[in-house]
Amino acid sequence: MAHESFHRIQPGLGLNASDAPNAHLDSEAGRVWLRLELRALARAMRSEGADGRQSAADAMIFRLCRNRLFPGSEAMEAAMEKQEGLAEYTGAFIGLRATGENIGREARIVENWEDNDAFARSFAYATGPALGLLLDRYAAGWRGRAASASLGSMLISALNVKVSQDLEGDARKRAASYGYSAVAAAEREREERHQALLAELTAKFLNGPTLDFPRAQELRRNFNPSTLVPFPPNGTYYPTGTFSAAWGRLQVQSGGALLAPDLRVPAPADPAARPLHGEGWTLQLAPGWTIRPSERAGSFVVAAEQK
């Protein structure tokens, strides 16, 4: 509730930002360094004194290493942490105050976030509260700077993190105590499964027959951010979700949809059926809308009826 309440006042605070998925966090290296950062953040939250500062600094070194591997990723991550991370931090902060629990509760959440198979749109729900609570500890007054500075950069400054010339070498040395070898091995296996999934998405959404929706001025979405899969340069794969616009309401229960930013699902089995049904989806067309064959064989487009 506090998370959504924060979203309502966020624009007025100058704290709204893009929520575009961070595709690099679906890559093998991106996931390795994010998982290590989450482990270090959780350890920092549980620790005090020099140990806490050391673990927080380790987390930021892992972040800096990741950002150097993926140019432009620092700004992308900062935007998501501003948009969703600050809202989640607000909920965590209020929750801890209301229940009297200590920061260890949030540390467990951050630690368990590592089990997610898709970080691109969900990572900030873990890093946002962790960074915010650590900033409360190390950088009093940080909230007044949140509109112009990222959470990560403020924590790096507060901890006076020094970057060595061999950043990746330093990061790997620090990572040893956080289980680097096991994380890297697990992510190597996961990458093989991920490539197989991308091949399936190519066959289904790029080479197979589809139903395409016109780009909507306002597309309302309800989805699980922990499941989204970046599919560059073709868009983002939503395994499930509900989408609505002027053309009606699409409910995807399985089989998925591709958003790029126009919407696409596998073609319906019977284009004359109402409501329309396809592989795991149902479409209730709004009055004045229909579907027509597209230029792609076996494919259709949603279109306004001609008067």
Task: Give a verbal description of the structure.
By secondary structure, this protein is of the alpha+beta class. It has two domains: 2-193, no CATH class; 208-304, no CATH class. 47% of the residues lie in helices and 15% in strands. Helix 2 runs antiparallel to helix 3 (49-69), helix 4 packs across helix 6 and helix 5 packs antiparallel against helix 6 (124-138). It contains nine helices and twelve strands. The longest helix has 28 residues, at 180-207. A hairpin with a 2-residue loop joins strand 9 (276-278) and strand 10 (281-285). Strands 3-4-7-8-1-12-11 form a seven-stranded mixed sheet, covered by helices on one side. Strands 2-5-6-10-9 form a five-stranded antiparallel sheet, with no helix packed on it.
